[in-house]
Design brief:
Blueprint (H helix, E strand, L loop, with lengths): L1 H18 L1 E10 L8 E4 L12 E2 L1 E4 L2 E9 L3 E7 L6 E3 L9 E4 L4 E7 L1 E3 L12 E8 L7 E7 L13 E4 L19 H10 L7 E5 L5 H4 L4 H21 L9 E6 L1 H12 L6 E5 L4 E2 L2 E2 L1 H5 L9 E6 L4 H18 L8 E5 L7 H5 L2 H8 L5
Parallel strand pairs: 1-9, 13-14, 13-15, 15-16, 16-19, 19-20
Antiparallel strand pairs: 1-5, 2-3, 2-6, 4-5, 6-8, 7-10, 11-12, 12-14, 17-18
Helix pairs in contact: 2-9
């Protein structure tokens, strides 16, 4: 009897596993040279984890490529197409790099994409940075990889040698100012937004420091040993350098940190655990609790005094944003229990129509800049 029960259980488990899988056939129709390959790249191992030349589609004829994938029901899949590199990705009808294609898997499907243009439209925007920037290439770290640093200075900085400025440190620095260095050809446009807000006297004059990421981004931007080393790198090595070279206001009240996704997580951790250094954090689409990541628990179990920090938290509602939502809601609840008040020391905003990408974050930049650097009247 036990053997029969076990056999029945195994059979049911296999049936459920099979039923939970959906077949997704991707078809690309395009005019390309006869020897050209078409690749798919996305947020799953089966899609190459955003490697632009790892997963080729199968060539059916001179104008058609296809491939069948299997994903679990309920998974959110994001992907793009390339002809072998980010310099040859699929463009929209206007010849621009488009956002990720997002699909919530629900049933067997056939997806057909007609692509007329391939290239790298963002190369045409090289140098399109508003304001004065300075680069510090291969800035060394004792316990982390060297990385580039880009520093954005407000208008009039060089003429006003006796003026000192608050500083905002931003994760994924290659993505925040310049579309030519951004991972997907679209930047946060924080330079244009900050310049406009400063000129209209909506925010204080500020310095913005962009910290490039490395191949270890996922581990550095997390509550890990390497994450602690990355935090120490910023606090003990990068910040002292910035304060020494530039006219900064180095105290905690004038020092902020920000980022998106995992960058939003590590920014929160920095402000929460090092409020003696950072008094503000901007956490856009933060990965507070998802899969093996959970930084909600440390906040829930914190029994110390109220943290004297200001937190900006936001998120969208499409694709990966849906998966991040429960963790964000748990964090907001935990912060409320710790005495944080909406509109006072925390500002939360949700854009239900927004995806998880630079284009979406660019539209929300003004919100955290105005919240963290207002001009008191």
């Amino acid at each position: 009897m036990k053997i029969l029960f076990l056999a029945a259980w195994i059979f049911s488990f296999i049936q459920i596993s099979i039923l939970s899988q959906c077949k997704i056939e991707v078809i690309v129709i395009s005019s390309l040279p006869s020897n050209q390959k078409v690749f798919i790249t996305g947020n799953k191992p089966e899609l190459g984890n955003w490697n632009p030349d790892k997963i080729p589609l199968n060539k059916m004829n001179d104008s058609t490529w296809s491939k069948i994938f299997e994903f679990r029901t309920g998974e959110v899949v994001e992907f793009k197409f390339t002809a072998g590199s980010w310099d040859e990705e699929a463009l929209d009808e206007a010849g621009k790099v488009s956002g990720n294609i997002a699909l919530k898997v629900s049933k067997d499907s056939v997806l057909v994409f007609c692509i007329d243009k391939w290239g790298n439209s963002h190369l045409n925007f090289e140098g399109q940075i508003t304001g004065n920037v300075r680069y510090h290439k291969n800035f060394p770290g004792r316990s982390v990889l060297s990385r580039d640093i880009i520093v954005w200075l407000p208008s009039g900085y060089d003429e006003l040698s006796d003026k000192y400025y608050p500083v905002l440190y931003m994760q994924d620095g290659q993505n925040v100012f310049d579309p030519s260095t951004s991972s997907f050809g679209i930047d946060w446009q924080i330079d244009e937004v900050a310049d406009s807000l400063i000129k209209t006297k909506s925010i204080k004059d500020i310095i913005i420091v962009g910290i490039y990421n490395t191949p270890f981004r996922g581990v550095e931007y997390n509550n890990t040993t390497l994450g602690s080393a990355y935090i120490n790198f910023i606090i003990e090595e990068l910040k002292p350098f910035i304060d020494r070279v530039y006219n900064t206001l180095p105290d905690r009240q004038n020092t902020a940190i920000g980022g998106s996704s995992s960058g939003g997580l590590i920014s929160f951790i920095m402000a929460w655990e090092h409020s003696d250094v950072f008094s503000m954090a901007a956490c856009l689409s933060p990965a507070f609790k998802i899969k093996k990541i959970d930084y909600v628990a440390p906040v829930k179990f914190y029994l110390g005094a109220h943290k004297d920090i200001m937190l900006y938290i936001d998120n969208g509602g499409i694709g990966l944003e849906e998966q991040l939502q429960p963790g964000i809601e748990e964090m907001l609840s935990a912060l409320k229990e710790k005495g944080f008040v909406q509109g006072k020391d925390i500002l939360y905003f949700k854009d239900s129509s927004a995806e998880h990408n630079e284009s979406a974050w660019a539209k929300r930049v003004y919100r955290f800049l105005e919240f963290m650097f207002p001009i008191k009247k």
